Amino acid sequence: MKRCFSTRQRRILAWVAAGRCAECGQPLEPDFHADHRIPFAHGGPTLLQNGQALCRPCNQRKGAQMPQPQLRPWQQDALRKALTWLVEARQDRRFLINAAPGAGKTRVSCVIAQTLLALGEIDRVIVIAPRAEVVNQWADDFRQVTGRYMSKVTARDGDIHGLGLDVCATWAAIQGLQDALQAMCGAARVLVICDEHHHAAVQAAWGEGADSAFAAAQFTLVLTGTPIRSDGAESVWLPYDDAGAIDYPEGGTYTLTYGEAVDLGYCRPVTFHRHEGRFTLDLDGGQTVQISGQQPATLPRPLARIPGLQRVLDFYRLACTPQYQADKQTPLATGYQASMIESAAQKLDDLRLRMPNAGGLIIAPSIEMAE
């Protein structure tokens, strides 16, 4: 690949930087430097996404050094605590980061890996993440921070140990890669980063696969934002107390709660809107019963004596029950759930007029409802 940015690329970099140095903010001269964020000498490509417009003095100061990521205060604290636990005290080979989703666990984990590599404590890094999209993001972030290429692998890749690279894969791929991952951990000093660790239930296939594949890993970095599974199952490697909460030593844990992340401005507060609805149930004899969030079902006296009927007609229970058309397969497009999603989509569209990158999350009470 060519080393120098083209004239067209230089124009775009200057335009993106609004005519100012991306480092010091001073106006750019016509002979500004089109710089590789990840230096060309470290494998950085001559592409716009790896480019930035710098003035001559800033680029000369930067040279061919890898850019140092800016860490938030909590990430700096987590980095220090992890190194103390894993390297200085050597209390255990696992460190847990329990931080709210979106707070920046990926970035600090890449810096921990970079530091352990620089200290000569590890040779290779393996990342396990929940989905292919997340795996791709890990590979991109890892290269930005460390300058090392991370190969995305699947169960079809076979002998990944022979690649001699850092690798990342999904939790679903662990069983098919179990022997290859074991070989990597046995032949080199490996840091394993387990993202969304709650996927690794002790008595489930992914948990058993991870426990076997990474038994010989030098270090394991456990990341979670939701440490308790909805089914109550325990995850591998971590002890739990009688209440089902993680009971790992405080020295080997860094915790940033969702409330703290919101207060610090790292995460946006989640807003829950009440969605009212009214259900009409047809009874034998032509009678109907009205149920809403404000009005519980009022049953005729003979029906009120039927055990459990009042509980079946609870508003929340009805709201969580999938609604279908007459064929019992096609979701009802005019039902309560459909109207709730339509209302949420409208609110999200309105919010994006002020916050273009706003997102939404649908939480289903069951797999049937999710499908």
Structure description:
By secondary structure, this protein is of the alpha/beta class. The chain folds into 3 domains: 56 residues, His-Me finger endonucleases (His-Me finger endonuclease fold); 191 residues, Rossmann fold; 93 residues, no CATH class. It is 34% helix and 14% strand. The protein has 13 helices and 11 strands. The protein has a 7-stranded parallel β-sheet, with helices on both faces. It has a two-stranded antiparallel sheet with strand order 1-2. Strands 10-11 form a two-stranded antiparallel ribbon. Strand 10 and strand 11 form a beta hairpin. Helix 6 runs parallel beside helix 7. The mean pLDDT is 83. This is Type III restriction enzyme, res subunit family. GO terms for molecular function: ATP binding; DNA binding; endonuclease activity; hydrolase activity; zinc ion binding. One of its GO terms (cellular component) is cytosol. It comes from Candidatus Contendobacter odensis Run_B_J11. InterPro entries: Helicase/UvrB_N, Helicase_ATP-bd, Helicase_Restrict-Modif_Enz, HNH, HNH_nuc, P-loop_NTPase.
